[in-house]
Design a protein that fits this description.
MetI-like fold; mainly alpha
Length: about 375
């Protein structure tokens, strides 16, 4: 009887220490959302009780993420065991680091939307300028049009120069000239934006013998100085990613080098090049110092890039905040609405870049 019992015991399935229970598939997401809801409720109670002046979105996300790390570890330890709990703890810490890195962006977007939405939704913000407006009312049509015109002309100047320079460095550049171009592009990447504005102002002042010159085209030139190195660097890296086998196959068929670049190299890397161009536009569209120096500011509409001062959105935000009138809140609301408009334009450009990159990606074209 004892031998039979021993045999049954030996044949019984042994418990596997690594085969414990398992949490549902989307449990980590649910725990994270629940943690944010709990901390959000706490901050909402503090706001209603008067302990805080407003709802703290950054504190909600930060403390909610910390609570998520603790909760997912405890839950996994109870259900899945110590080994998987440690794995989930490390994963949650990585997630927490990512969320904390995004906190400045979340705080910026949240603050801009909350403060800028009232003036942004007014019907006159996109239809009127600030001409003869000293209090509430008016809009930013003149600044929006100025930003679009100046940035558009800067793009027309920068993209051909930057793209051709990148093609030269990648396909033709050898020796000291290529090294010199690379060196100066690196130097231009790090110059302060105000230096670009001073360069444009000094250049056109000497050219037209006018020490007080202010016009939109000068601002476009200043922005192009900042855009060109970004376009060169991003386009150069994208062109380097094109496999040499594609070039050699075209040469083997007798295709000239210039036609190989035009028909093979550029179409293959067009998605990355367009993304780099959009990033360069997003980088300069919010510049204030160079435009304040060479383009100036005005409260009236001006569609002519080559005559008189021209307002842009960054300068509009600055002037509304710096030169407040008797109705202080109206000026602050317009400043926040201008900042919100600028953020939306940048987000639209980045979304458009991703869409273009997805459409023209070589993987989707096969």
């Amino acid at each position: 009887m004892s031998s039979t019992t021993a045999t049954r015991t030996a044949n019984a399935p042994q418990a596997n220490a690594y085969a414990a229970g398992k949490l549902p598939k989307n449990s980590t997401l649910y725990v994270l959302l629940a943690s944010w809801i709990v901390t959000g409720a706490v901050f909402l109670v503090l706001q209603l009780s008067g302990a805080t002046s407003g709802f703290n979105i950054v504190g909600t996300i930060f403390f909610g993420t910390v609570l998520y790390c603790i909760a997912i570890y405890a839950l996994s330890y109870a259900v899945e065991g110590a080994r998987r709990a440690k794995d989930r703890l490390v994963t949650s810490l990585v997630t927490a680091a990512f969320v904390i890195a995004l906190l400045p962006l979340i705080s910026l977007v949240f603050t801009t939307v909350v403060n800028g939405l009232p003036a942004f939704l007014t019907p006159t913000f996109f239809t009127e300028s600030q001409r003869n407006v000293v209090g509430a009312g008016g809009g930013a049509l003149h600044a929006i049009m100025g930003t679009l015109e100046i940035t558009g002309v800067a793009t027309l100047i920068s993209v051909p120069i930057g793209l051709l320079a990148a093609v030269y460095l990648t396909e033709y550049g050898r020796g000291r000239l290529a090294q010199a171009i690379t060196f100066f592009v690196d130097v231009m990447t790090g110059i302060p934006s105000i230096v670009a504005g001073l360069f444009s102002f000094a250049f056109f002042s000497l050219l037209f013998h006018d020490a007080g010159i202010r016009f939109g085209f000068g601002g476009a030139v200043a922005l192009s100085v900042l855009m060109i190195p970004v376009v060169v660097r991003s386009s150069e890296e994208m062109l380097k990613l094109v496999p040499n086998e594609l070039r050699e196959a075209a040469y083997a068929l007798g295709v000239p080098k210039w036609l190989t670049i035009l028909k093979v190299v550029l179409p293959t890397s067009i998605a990355g090049i367009v993304t780099g161009i959009m990033i360069s536009i997003s980088r300069v569209i919010g510049e204030t110092a160079p435009l304040l120096i060479i383009s100036g500011f005005t409260a009236s509409m001006n569609y002519d890039l080559f005559s008189q001062r021209m307002m842009t959105l960054p300068v509009f935000v600055y002037t509304q905040y710096a030169n407040q009138g008797t109705d202080t809140q109206a000026y602050l609301d317009r400043a926040w609405a201008g900042a919100l408009t600028l953020v939306l334009i940048v987000m639209l450009l980045n979304g458009l870049a991703r869409l273009i990159a997805r459409i023209f990606s070589p993987k989707l074209g096969r």
